[in-house]
């Protein structure tokens, strides 16, 4: 609201772009909350694996909203202001709101960094954003970064417009905000689209699952395995495992049960597990040879 008030008194397109940016960000947080709530619904006959991936869908919608509302409007307003520049009036409104907003946004960004560090581990920030299976933290992290940089761009545009007396600088600052939002929206769209289409477990998690399977006495080896994230905290594991040809059905069933327990012990999010036993043909062939 403060940004819109400042935009009204100053006539600054940068301030107006920042106001629209804040509206888009606030709406995006609501979308993420809605996605989290809908994803928690119990599974049904129509959706036997539950609704966990709705979190990915709403994160993708966030990217679309950020691009269409935030970036598109800012780019339009920036071009309009450059083609028809106006002097920034009563700049003290803009400076006061922008400086306060930068301080507030810095605290928000700091919180996002602290929360991300708790789950990021040793990954770089780029790797964390690209590989995270939980969409909320990367989305909020990039949104906060974009908000902070956007405020700095707006402050730059307004300051230059006041110092030079040329309103074109205000339009340039608005264009910078639009380009920034467009880049962030595209990055978010690419990453959330990958999650929405379906991503498997990370290589280290798959190695843990394979080791747990092959550690079961009745399992000779893993013939092949597929994993799929049904949601950030729910993983589907499907594998064909080799068993000895002389094992009884009871021994195979017992081995499968133990293998499932071993998987869940090392990867608790592996909640849906399907194991298909098959004869260890490689060992049988080498033995007969």
UniProtKB/TrEMBL annotation:
Q: Where is the Cation efflux protein transmembrane domain?
A: 2-197
Where are its TM segments located?
Answer: 56-76, 92-113, 139-162, 168-190
The residues covered by the Cation efflux protein cytoplasmic domain are 203-273
Tell me if Transport is a UniProt keyword of this record.
yes
A GO cellular component annotation in the UniProt record: membrane
Signal peptide from the UniProt entry: 1-17
Q: How does it sit in the membrane?
A: Multi-pass membrane protein
Top-level taxon of the source organism: Bacteria
Q: Which GO terms describe its molecular function?
A: monoatomic cation transmembrane transporter activity
InterPro entries from the UniProt entry: Cation_efflux, Cation_efflux_CTD, Cation_efflux_CTD_sf, Cation_efflux_TM, Cation_efflux_TMD_sf, SLC30A9
**Where's it found, cell-wise?**
Membrane
Q: Does the keyword Nucleus apply?
A: no
Q: Pfam families, alphabetically?
A: Cation_efflux (PF01545), ZT_dimer (PF16916)
Which GO terms are recorded in the biological process aspect for this UniProt protein? zinc ion transport
Q: Which UniProt keywords apply?
A: Membrane, Signal, Transmembrane, Transmembrane helix, Transport
Protein's name in the database: Cation diffusion facilitator family transporter
């Amino acid at each position: 609201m403060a940004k819109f008030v400042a935009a009204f008194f100053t006539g600054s397109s940068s301030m107006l772009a920042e106001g629209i940016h804040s509206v888009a960000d606030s709406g995006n947080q609501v979308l993420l909350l809605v996605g989290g709530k809908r994803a928690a619904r119990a599974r049904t006959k129509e959706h036997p694996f539950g609704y966990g991936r709705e979190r990915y869908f709403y994160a993708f919608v966030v990217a679309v909203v950020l691009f269409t509302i935030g970036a598109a409007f800012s780019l339009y307003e920036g071009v309009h202001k450059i083609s028809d520049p106006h002097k920034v009036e009563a700049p003290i409104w803009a400076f006061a709101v922008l400086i306060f907003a930068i301080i507030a946004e810095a605290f928000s960004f700091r919180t996002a960094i602290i929360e991300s560090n708790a789950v990021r581990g040793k990954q770089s920030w780029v790797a964390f954003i690209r590989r995270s299976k939980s969409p909320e933290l990367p989305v909020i992290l990039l949104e906060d970064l974009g908000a902070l940089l956007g405020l700095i761009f707006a402050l730059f545009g307004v300051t230059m417009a006041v110092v030079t007396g040329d309103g074109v600088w205000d339009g340039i600052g608005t264009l910078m905000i639009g380009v920034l939002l467009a880049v962030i929206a595209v990055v978010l769209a690419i990453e959330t689209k990958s999650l929405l289409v379906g991503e498997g477990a990370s290589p280290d998690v798959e190695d843990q699952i394979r080791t747990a399977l092959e550690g079961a006495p009745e399992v000779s080896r893993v013939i092949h395995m597929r994993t799929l994230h049904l949601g950030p905290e729910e993983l589907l594991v499907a594998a064909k495992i080799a068993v000895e040809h002389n094992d009884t059905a009871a021994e195979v069933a017992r081995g499968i049960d133990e293998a499932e327990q071993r998987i869940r012990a090392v990867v608790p999010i592996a909640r849906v597990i399907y194991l298909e036993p098959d004869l260890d043909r490689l060992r049988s062939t080498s033995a007969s040879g």
